[in-house]
Design a protein that fits this description.
This protein is of the alpha/beta class and about 350 residues long. The protein folds into two domains: about 5-85, Winged helix-like DNA-binding domain superfamily/Winged helix DNA-binding domain (Arc Repressor Mutant, subunit A, Orthogonal Bundle), CATH 1.10.10; about 150-330, Vaccinia Virus protein VP39 (Rossmann fold, 3-Layer(aba) Sandwich), CATH 3.40.50.150. The chain is about 45% helix and about 15% strand. The longest helix has 14 residues, at about 250-260. The radius of gyration is 22 Å and the shape is globular. The N and C termini lie far apart (about 45 Å). The structure holds S-adenosylmethionine. The site of S-adenosylmethionine has 17 residues, from helix 10.
Amino acid sequence: MSAPLADMRRLAEMADYIVPFAVRVVGDFKIADEFAEGPRRATDVAAALGLHSGAVERVLRALSVKEIFAEVEPGVFALTPMAEFMRSDHPHSLQGTFPLMPDDVQAWAHTAHSIRTGRTGFEHVHGAEYYDYFVDFPEECARFDRSVQTLHVLMVRTLLPAYDWGSLETLVDVGSGNGAFTAELLARYPNIRATLFDLPHVIGRAREELTKAGVADRAETVGGDFFERVPPGADAYLLKTILHDWDDTRARRIVEVVGRAMAPHSRIVVLEAVPLPGDAYDIGKVMDIKQLVLFGGHARTEEEFAELFAAGGIRLNRVIRTPTLVIVEGVPEGAAEGGRA
Ligand SMILES: C[S@@+](CC[C@H](N)C(=O)[O-])C[C@H]1O[C@@H](n2cnc3c(N)ncnc32)[C@H](O)[C@@H]1O
């Protein structure tokens, strides 16, 4: 194919949302699990799952073009290395990572509103901000929570070796979700005690994760609002993928609340994307559009973090890049100078 045609095809394939939707239904219906023992007829899989046989075959065929499945003979499909990650029993399973959430999709349908106004499509269509809206939809809220947590194996693998977690004795996980990351942290470092802090209707799910990891005796769960207060005096305040959800006014408010809770020896440890300048590859730059359309926040550069921290009396101390998220550490202003990694 000539270069311009190849570019046209690439653009057309990237621009269409057929594949993202197809991948999401495959995940939601756990279709990849049906192929764990080897190739199978799409019609048999559809019958086993109570789905429409022609539709399942068409979805699998479409995804085979993208090497997510392979059509090994007409109507018979097999997993590819990519599809293996869609199995729910894979140790690094992404089966629940991309749920098809109709409320999100409705917000994406109003991306034009976001581009015109800088405000979320989510609030435009649902009349409420993301986290407020899901209070009334616990099942969807749990699916969202799970989608965030499914990436935690990858996060744990990259973020645990990159920071001196072992030097901490107490940690508050601010906006912990179901707390899978901190549960793993506690399992790895027996000297740490943690408080998991999230909205009252969310925090209930954290106990289960802590018990599963065998660390429930070193963690407490607290329901509350991080715009009001967080538990005081911990060695570290962990904010994993929190600040990017909020505009500058509200992010500043969270940092002020954390700043007030910090003791002179405390640190704030933010884990999220920090885009690199220029057009270097950085998934954070892509995810930033999700912040624009769904949450109303944005990704921040190192300079923007320094400014944000300053609002809470915190000095940006170190920025550590890992293959997944970036670790941004801050200490109370006036604390001893630290090295930049
Ligand atoms: C993107 S999730 C991140 C969860 C977790 N830190 C992680 O990375 O897996 C954002 C979390 O912030 C919580 N959250 C939102 N508003 C909050 C508030 N006002 N007070 C406390 N937690 C809040 C949500 O319930 C959600 O669990």
